[in-house]
Description:
By secondary structure, this protein is of the alpha/beta class. The protein is built from eight helices and five strands. Strands 3-2-1-4-5 form a five-stranded parallel beta sheet. The protein is globular and about 45 Å long.
Amino acid sequence: xxxxxxxxxxxxxxxxxxxxxxxxxxxxxxxxxxxxxxxxxxxxxxxxxxxxxxxxxxxxxxxxxxxxxxxxxxxxxxxxxxxxxxxxxxxxxxxxxxxxxxxxxxxxxxxxxxxxxxxxxxxxxxxxxxxxxxxxxxxxxxxxxxxxx
Length: 149
């Protein structure tokens, strides 16, 4: 019997980075998700944010991601994630209020991990008010995952 999948909320900027660049840790993170190495938790607010970011003119122009690739990503976000509620109120606030919804999703979904490169979120790591939630970088999270699935 296999162990239950580790669950994680992945910060939006990592979902975007892993999509626009096929190299580096964010891309490896998306590959791990696609091969079911972890369960991606997603709030409705974050799903809207991802869609909005990829529709920004400067993102569209700069990265020219093919429509079929974006549609494949959006389809996976619909079908290969678990929807989670936002926990309100939060037990603590993020320095940048725009990041509150990411923390709220991790807590509301009872995620094992919140994966981010954002210092405003990383600075909260280890705070007892977060309970068992671990806030980690992509590199640390990738090291936690099983090597192969």
